[in-house]
C-alpha cells in the first residue's frame, strides 16, 4: 500500500517539497497531496511590481497544477490537526469538513502580516502580503489621485495625496519605492495633484532601514528615497491611525488617507491549532532536519517553522523564500529517507544575496559579499528573479511585461470591480427583460 504524504500549503516551501518528493519517491510508493487554499504559488518578491502595475498580477503567480507531475492538489482550508491520530482537518472548497489521514505531513503554511495593538490599525491600514493586498493598494492609490482632482478644499486634497508606509524591511521598502515610482509616473495625468505634489512617508521603529542588508547599502537606499522626496522617519513609531490621519511618536499628526502596513510577519494563525510545539514567536519548533520536536512523522518548514539557521547559530532562519524553498527540498529528502529512500540531511544554507528593487531602474543588492547599487543592481535583481521564476511560460510573460513597461510606462486604469459583478436586476413587471424590450 502506498504511503500518504501530505503537504500543508503550496507556497515556496510546499511546492519545492512536492517537486522533490515526486523525484525521490518511486511512483507506486507514495501518494503526495498538497492542501492549499489557493491553486497557485505567489512569487512574493515580484508582488511590489504587481502592486505598481509593472507586472500583470496573474504573471506573478505560479499555477500549482502546471508544475506538479503526479502530486495531487486538494483545494481547501487547513483548520486544525490531531497529530496523535495522524489527521489533518480540512474544509474543502465545496465547504465539506474532512479529516485527511497521513503517514507523513509537512507543514508549510507560511505567514501573515504581523499586526500590532495600535488603535485604528486593523480598521484603516492595508497590508502588502497577498495579491489582493497589492491590487487593493494600487487601486486605492489611483482612487486617491482621482478623488484629489474633484476636491476643492486644499487640506483635504493634501491628505488624499499623502501616503504613509510603516515598516522598512526590504518588503516594505520595495513596496514603497515601487508605488512611489508608479505615482510619480502617472501624476502628470492629474493636473491638480501634480500642482499639489505627492507626499510619501516611510516610518521605521528601528534606527535604520533594512537590517537584512549592510549599513552601507541601506544608507544608499535611504539617500535614494530622500532624493525622490520620500520622508524617511527612522526611530519613529505609529501611535494611532484614524480614517484621515496618522499620529507619530514624535508628536506629528499627519493628515492622510492611505496607510500601508509592512512591519513584518508572523506564522499563519492556524499553526496554533495543529497541536505542535511552538517557540516564542509562534513558529513551530523543529530540529535541523526540519522534523518537529517529539514527532517522527511531522515536519515543518518556511515562515511557519523555526528551523535552526546554520549561518547564525542559536537563531532561526529568517522568513525568506530563499530559505523556504531550500527547506522544501531538504525536508523532501528527509521524508524520502524516513520512507527508505536515501539518507537524511540537515538543512544547510547560507544566504547568497539580497536584492531590493527600488523602481526607477534602481536597486541595491548584496551577493556573496559583493555590493551592487543603481542600474547594475536593478539588472541583476531582474535577471535573478527571471531565473528563479518556475516555468518558461511565466518567464516569457515577465520579460514581455517588463519590456512593455520600459516602452509605454504604466497603466492608470482602476479595475477594482473586477471579479465583483453587479447583481442581475429583475425587471419591475416581473417579466423577462428581453421580452419587454422587444
Ligand atoms: C511583499 C513581499 C516581498 C518579499 N520579497 C522577498 C524577497 O525578495 N526574497 C525573499 O527571499 N523573500 C521575500 N519575501 C518573503 C517570502 O515571500 C516568504 O518568506 C516565503 O513566501 C515563505 O514561504 P512559505 O512556503 O513558508 O510560505 P508561503 O510562500 O507564504 O506559502 C504558504 C502557503 O500556504 C497557504 N495557506 C496558508 N494558510 C492556509 C490554510 N489554512 N489552509 C491551506 N493553505 C493555506 C497560502 O495560501 C500559501 O500558498 C517577501 C515577502 C513579501 C510579503
Note down, in words, how this protein is organized:
By secondary structure, the chain is α/β, with parallel strands linked by helices. Helices cover 33% and strands 24% of the residues. It has 13 helices and 24 strands. A 7-stranded mixed sheet has the order 7-6-5-2-1-8-20, covered by helices on one side. Strand 22 (353-357) and strand 23 (363-367) form a beta hairpin. The longest helix has 20 residues, at 131-150. Flavin-adenine dinucleotide (FAD) binds next to helix 1, strand 2, helix 2, strand 5 and helix 10.
How would you briefly describe this protein structure?
The chain is α/β, with parallel strands linked by helices. The protein is built from 13 helices and 24 strands.
Task: Output the number of helix runs.
Answer: 13
Low-pLDDT parts are none
Bound molecules: flavin-adenine dinucleotide
Structure summary, number of beta strands? 24
Helix content: 25-40%
Map the helices and strands:
Layout: E1 3-8, H1 12-24, E2 30-36, E3 40-42, H2 47-51, E4 61-63, H3 64-67, E5 72-82, E6 87-92, E7 97-101, E8 104-107, E9 111-113, H4 121-124, E10 125-127, H5 131-150, H6 154-160, E11 162-166, H7 170-186, H8 191-196, E12 199-203, H9 215-227, E13 231-233, E14 238-242, E15 245-248, E16 253-255, E17 258-261, E18 265-267, E19 284-285, E20 298-300, E21 305-306, H10 321-338, E22 353-357, E23 363-367, E24 370-374, H11 375-388, H12 392-408, H13 433-437
